[in-house]
Design goal:
Elements (H helix, E strand, L loop, with lengths): L8 H11 L8 H14 L2 E6 L2 E6 L1 H9 L1 H15 L8 H20 L4 H19 L4
Antiparallel strand pairs: 1-2
Helix pairs in contact: 1-2
Length: about 140
Amino acid sequence: MISEEPRHGYDIIREIEARTGGAYVPSPGVIYPALEALLDLGWVEAEADGARRSFKLSKEGEAELEAEAETLARIEQRLADLLDSDRPEDPQDVRGAMWRLRHAVQEAVRAQPDDLDRRKAVADILTEAQEKIAGLKD
């Protein structure tokens, strides 16, 4: 993903989430150590971008990416398989709705994290939705 364009760690997390339809969302505890390892190997370079760092592929990284093209293709296929899953317990329309809900919740809470009334309203809405979904019967 860094070979496509320079990215922040958070951008990488969101891109993986988007490419898997929300089926997999890596944690910062996975992404940032991986980025540090890539820096140590010399395969990426970091540029300050305000308080964050933007990562881009180095010349050494481009050579490694080319050498590992087959492995990368398998990884990309696994991500695509998550997105295109046709398992009945994992339909894309439901995954998409869950992904949109998750982001709406995060945006609502992060916009005003100290607003206890807002947080309670979000929690109440989620509880009501959970109860309605749990109550669905054949």
